[in-house]
Design a protein that fits this description.
There is one protein chain. The chain has eight helices and no strands. The protein is mostly helical. It has one domain. The N terminus and C terminus are likely disordered.
Length: 210
Amino acid sequence: MSFLPASHASYEYASLTNSINSKHTIQGILRAKDAEIESTRQELLAAKDTASTIYSQIKKATADLDKANKPSFLESLLVPTSTRQETVSHLQSTLFHLQQRQDPALEAVPVIEEQYKKLLDERKDIALQVIELQELRGQLKDLLDKAFTVDQSTFDSEDGVFARDSELKKRVNTVQLKIIDAEKNGIRSEKQGASGTRQSTCRFCVDVLE
């Protein structure tokens, strides 16, 4: 297997690890944004449910009031006038309070919808950064493969990256195994959320190679 010149590999390694370290918190940010989106979604559903419930209650109260104002002949005989008047007053009061609640409930829905759409747009930008982070980790793994996955004779030669350092080679192999493990156990796409194992990949790369 071919390997990279030490100067080029060192430069690429520094560049990739710097980029990864600058983005290593992005998966946590994505998780927080997802939680905020879910909370807002639940709030929106509750607001719509409240508005719908009030509408149904107003519709029923209106029908009951119309019926109370226009009693049948039999009802007018059986139900005292005072009782009917009390019923009408109660229904009018109920309807008035429901109508007072309706406007704020209806006005809340579009406000929350707008906030929900804004959060979804923000998530798209964050998700792109998560994808970039995953691509950077893949590039780092490829670099380690090219730089260190060589036979013993090549590794012991003067031309290899960090040549003659068998202890470092062992540590680099550990890095490669952990990256592979992170790829297997971590998130394979931004749709599946973020993984703590993958998030820590850049950290153990730096720790092992320092």
